[in-house]
Amino acid sequence: MIKLTRTLSLLFSISVIMIGCKLTNTNYNNHKSKQTNEIINSSLWLYRKSIDDNFKHFKKNVKTRKKLWKIQSTEELIRRTMLIDNKIRNIKANWDKKLTDTLCLNLEQYNNFLQINHASYLRDTTSWSKRYLRVLPQVQQANPPSFAEFYFKGTSQEEAIAILSTLQLGILQEALAIQRRIFKEAND
User: Fold this and answer.
1) Which of 77, 123, 75, 83 lies closest to 106, judged by CA?
2) Which of 26-30, 52-56, 102-106, 143-147 has the lowest mean pLDDT?
3) Which residues, 6 or more positions from 185, have their beta carbon under 8 angstroms from its beta carbon?
4) CB under 8 Å to 178, separation ≥6 — which residues?
5) CA torsion 14→17→23→25, rounded to 10°?
6) Would the CA dihedral through 106, 125, 179, 67 be positive or negative?
7) Largest Cα–Cα distance in the chain?
8) What is the full DSSP assignment across 38-64?
9) Rounded to an integer, what distance in angstroms lies between the CA atom of residue 66 and that of residue 186?
10) How many C-beta atoms lie closer than 10 Å to residue 44's C-beta?
11) Which residue has the higher pLDDT, 43 or 1?
12) Among 5, 85, 88, 118, which has the minimal tally of Cβ within 10 Å of its Cβ?
């Protein structure tokens, strides 16, 4: 878990730096974005595998009713998380900035699900579609840019995909943390 958290922190830092640096050499930026995406995609695969492996291990060792309920709860968490993960994958595969408006709505729905079913396990209850508002300067908070405008205005396709991948990684990390808290509670 610590390694995954460190990886996410590193990748997020790389993405912020990449977004903040607007160099004139777009070939260099595209190459840099592609490399970042390769690293993030490896981490995404590890998170998906961890979620799946943890669930299989927990399910195999279930012996009480309380744990059966936890399995059902976790199955729905995994299903919803993989739905949002797949939506982001589809946007990345068929990049069109207009699709990010739909993503914003999907992120709100996902957050509503988490709030209703897993609020006690959430460290941050803010929707992924609104977390960017925290970093806005005070002047912009009165009239904030949209989710799509904040993340994707003036970015290349490769940069946009890196941003979406980082978002995916954060969602998977949060789901894994919730899953682990559920399993820990069931085993206590």
Assistant:
1) 83
2) 26-30
3) 70
4) 77, 114, 118, 121, 122
5) 0
6) negative
7) 61
8) HHHHHHHHHHHHHHHHHHHHHHHT--S
9) 7
10) 21
11) 43
12) 5
- Residue 9 and residue 146: Cα distance in Å, rounded? 24
Q: Given phi > 0 = left and psi -120 to 50 = alpha, else beta, which region is 154? A: left
Confidence bin at 101 (pLDDT 50/70/90): confident
pLDDT at 23: 44
Rounded Cα–Cα distance for residues 38 and 40 (Å): 6
| Residue 135 in this model has a pLDDT that exceeds 70 | yes
Does residue 100 contact residue 144 with C-beta atoms inside 8 Å?
no
Reduce the DSSP state of residue 121 to 3 states and report it. helix
Q: Which residue has the tokens 């908070």?
A: 141
On whether the CB atoms of residues 88 and 103 are closer than 8 A, the answer is yes
Q: Which residue has the tokens 């390694």?
A: 3
For residue 101, give the amino acid letter.
D
Cβ partners under 8 Å of residue 51, min gap 6: 78, 81, 172, 175, 176, 179
Q: Which alpha helices (DSSP H) does the chain contain, by range?
A: 2-20, 26-60, 65-93, 99-118, 138-141, 147-152, 157-187
Residue type, 49: K
Residue 42 CB neighbour total at 10 angstroms: 11
